[in-house]
Amino acid sequence: MKKKIGLLGGSFNPIHTGHLLLAESARDQYELDKVLFIPTGNNPFKLSQDEIAREHRLKMVELAIAGNDRFEILTHEIDQSGITYTIDTINSIKEIYPDCDFYFIAGADLMFEITLWKGAPELLKSVKFITTFRPGYSHDRLDMRIKELQEIYGASIFKLYATEMDIASSDIRSRIKNGYSIRYLLPDPVEAYIHDQGLYLPNGTHGDQHELD
After folding, report:
1. Where are the alpha helices (DSSP H) in the chain?
2. Three-class SS of residue 158?
3. What are phi and psi of 69, to 5 degrees?
4. What is residue 46's predicted lDDT score, i.e. its pLDDT?
């Protein structure tokens, strides 16, 4: 029987509890053998985003998934310079993990954006998709979109029934800049790392000038 591998890509800027719950829910519901977390390098859709250094994002993912032997990191994208594209990453992963079935884990918003991605027709046929609901997307609207992608591209898309957590990395960054608590929004080791490194603070301030919680 082929191994089933989940793929969860993202900037993880920073990684938070919502990411982890999404990955674990998908792993559990669809009996995935492992989930690969794939921090993005240069995302063509977020070129204007003011991201912190790659090594910080990578370290936070490492801290967040430590202790879960079903979670691993794939550094394929974050190790590259220049713009990275998901279809190229998928093709590389297939070489690393031959004879496996791959499940791309994503929120409902991806289902409405994916046809804009490079190599979208190939991508929609080359991996299966697990999509979960997010605030702002009705079940009926998502069902119609899934049916459309299945009919046009032959996509295999499965719905994930998991507790919704409306947590956004952008909100966490904003809370830090404004001196608000981020406790319980992300794992304790990640929170400690952000504080120790003085990440996401306004320019000209230092880590010891703001309490994160």
Report:
1. 17-29, 54-65, 86-96, 108-111, 120-126, 139-153, 169-177, 188-197
2. strand
3. -75, -5
4. 58
Q: What is the pTM of this model?
A: 0.89
pLDDT at 213: 27
Give, in order, the Cα–Cα distances in Å from 95 to each of 86, 88, 90. Answer: 14, 11, 9
According to DSSP, residue 76 is labeled: T
Return all residues near 49 (Cβ < 8 A) that are at least 6 apart: 11, 13, 43
pLDDT for 45-85, tens place per residue? Answer: 554 455 688 999 999 999 999 989 999 999 999 998 888 89
In this structure, the strands spanning 34-39 and 71-73 are: parallel
d(Cα 80, Cα 91) in Å, to the nearest integer?
Answer: 15
Instruction: Mention every residue, 6+ apart, whose C-beta is less than 8 A from residue 207.
Output: 195, 196, 197, 198, 199, 201
Both tokens assigned to 16? 């938070």
